[in-house]
Amino acid sequence: EAHVRDAAIIAALQRVEHDEIAGYGCARTWSTLLGFTTAATELLKTLTEERRFDESLTRIAETLNKSALEPAASAR
To answer: Which residues are CB-contacts of 43 (< 8 A; sequence separation ≥ 6)?
Structure first.
């Protein structure tokens, strides 16, 4: 089923996004602690973009997961 495949792809994408968010968060913290304020500001912008993308993926996944479950629910 296409919806199941798409839901799995989004789940994999979100795992990558979560790793990126963690990496950017750590880099931003280190930049702040080391006094690299310009770098910290830019990293915060990137971190915010990554979080927004992850939120978008969550919204899409919620819709896809419901669609993926419909065939199973109708088979009962």
So the answer is: 24, 27, 28, 31
